[in-house]
Write a structure and sequence with these properties.
Largest sheet: 4 strands, antiparallel
Helix content: 40-55%
Shape: globular
Radius of gyration: 25 Å
Number of helices: 20
Strand content: under 5%
Strand order of the largest sheet: 2-1-3-4
Distance between the termini: 67 Å
Low-confidence stretches: none
Structural class: mainly alpha
Order of helices and strands: HHHHHHHHHHHHHHHHHEEHHEEH
Number of strands: 4
């Protein structure tokens, strides 16, 4: 076989299997549904309605001029609930496979508007969902495991397959390269994550307290994230062992994260990516009959022909942007930024970059989860108030505060919790959005409880700070530091 034919066969081997795409559709739909029902819906009014926590003018200003959304024109509490409910219905139809291609477009539009409307406060899990949902529009989602499969099943686009595989590889490789902090290089990053009691589940104690668990997991995470492209891009054989190793890593990684840490729907989205990579050999082993595809026909009109050219031109531009922006990330946020080549590329990259017209788009390629290392401020937040007896009580549980033995009295859920997790980075100058949210969240909690402004002086933002020092694996002697911020300080909080 000639070299040219081998290259063609190698590239063709990256065409995704439509049975894997069907499993991907189901898991991705569950991921989006989880996000909409448990994260977005409980906070519908607070961010997308009329009575928002952050004043609407400040919200729009901080989102930026490229964050246009339908919520710029319609601000209504009922509309916010109806809007998210329609998105939930679309996600359900997407999962069961009813006209999934149309539902993917509808769901993407609805989801994109939600992200644009809160662009400065969304997390990496939202971006992961968005990227996968965007490219799902170009896949034959209904060929298998759907309530209404098409009679003529379209073949999977090789171009979209390559883009999706490239995107998944970049997400993990870039994240792995960015994890160069001492917690990762010395093997205790998983211990830090599992020690963050406000964000973790009870199972996390097992990971935090056993060195034979957290140290290997830390190094394995680093190794597999950086080497995932090798396992995925290795030429497929009759038994694609390297692809299976990559898939097993993704499944193990996301299941372990999901069992330790509240990362919203990030792990579910990651499992959908793992399903997408299942090769044809997997389905053949389980005796699934191959798909009988419809014959490909050439465009019958000039307009359709030009639209096809336009589509492939877009694919080329998207492939260029994904790779360029990830290389720019490597040059700016990994150890490569200390090399001459990295510095020169980062300085030169704006000259060959294509700017996104909107805030939320596939142009976003900033994959920095738990990098360069997990957050070391692993305390918690609450609101406390002083009663007539002069003692402090927790606003949410009404429990008396024991100053000698700090305990977590307040653990919210959903979007509110994800936002409060970020606010623990309020000391950093470039994290203004965390202080803005924290200020208005505090005022909002007093307002919904009808606390007269004359009593605000008796209420405090309580910060319990458990700082994990660099180069220190043993934290048994570290004590919880408590800070109370009064209303005068909070009113000027976002100005600092």
């Amino acid at each position: 076989m000639s070299v040219g034919k081998r290259i063609v066969n190698y590239i063709s081997s990256f065409r995704l299997d439509d049975r894997s795409i069907a499993v991907f559709r189901i898991i991705l739909g569950i991921s989006v549904l989880y996000n909409l029902v448990l994260i977005k819906l409980p906070y519908a009014v607070e961010f997308w309605g009329q009575h928002t926590i952050i004043p609407i003018d400040i919200l729009k200003n901080m989102n930026g001029p490229s964050s246009h959304s339908i919520f710029d024109y319609i601000r209504n509490d009922i509309f916010a609930y109806v809007y998210i409910s329609v998105a939930i219905l679309s996600a359900l139809l997407f999962i069961v496979g009813y006209k999934s291609k149309y539902n993917a477009i509808i769901l993407l539009f609805l989801y994109w508007n939600l992200l644009q409307g809160a662009a400065n406060w969304i997390g990496g899990y939202d971006f992961y969902n968005f990227h996968l949902l965007f490219w799902a529009m170009f896949l034959p989602l209904d060929n298998h495991f759907s309530i209404k499969p098409p009679k003529l099943k379209p073949k999977v686009s090789l171009a979209v397959s390559i883009i999706l595989i490239t995107q998944i590889c970049w997400i993990y490789f870039a994240t792995g390269m960015a994890k160069y902090g001492t917690a990762w290089t010395e093997g205790y990053a998983v211990k830090i994550m599992a020690s963050d009691k406000w964000v973790t589940y009870k199972t996390a104690a097992f990971f935090a307290n056993n060195i034979w668990v957290y140290k290997p997991l830390t190094y394995l995470t680093l190794f597999f994230e950086v080497s995932l492209p090798f396992f995925v891009l290795f030429p497929l054989r009759k038994t694609p062992i390297f692809r299976y190793i990559g898939i097993l890593f993704l499944v193990g990684f996301h299941v372990s994260i999901f069992s330790i840490y509240d990362v919203a729907n990030f792990s579910i989205a990651g499992l959908s990516g793992a399903a997408l990579l299942l090769p044809e050999a997997f389905w053949q082993k389980w005796k699934f009959s191959p798909t009988q595809y419809a014959e490909k026909t050439k465009p019958t009109s000039t307009l359709k022909r030009y639209l096809q050219y336009l589509k492939y031109a877009f694919f080329l531009i998207a492939f260029y942007v994904i790779n360029l922006n990830n290389m720019k990330f490597l040059a700016g946020y990994t150890p490569l930024n200390k090399t001459n080549l990295g510095k020169k590329f980062y300085q030169y990259s704006p000259n060959i970059s294509i700017n996104s017209p909107v805030r939320i788009s596939i142009f976003f390629q900033y994959w920095k989860m738990f990098a360069p290392e997990p957050i070391r401020d692993i305390g918690w937040l609450s609101i406390e108030y002083k009663k007539k007896d002069g003692q402090l009580y927790d606003l949410f549980s009404d429990k008396k505060i024991d100053s000698e033995h700090p305990v977590i009295n307040y653990k919210p859920r959903g979007f509110e919790f994800q936002l409060l997790i970020y606010t623990r980075a309020m000391r950093f100058k470039n994290k203004l959005f965390t202080r803005v949210f924290l200020k208005y969240w505090f005022l909002h909690q007093l307002k919904i409880r009808n606390v007269p402004e004359s009593y605000y002086k008796d209420f405090y933002l309580a910060e319990y700070r458990f700082y994990y020092p660099p180069n220190q694996e043993d934290i048994s002697n570290i004590k919880v530091e408590k800070n109370l911020y009064d209303i005068q300080y909070i009113r000027t909080f976002a100005d600092q």
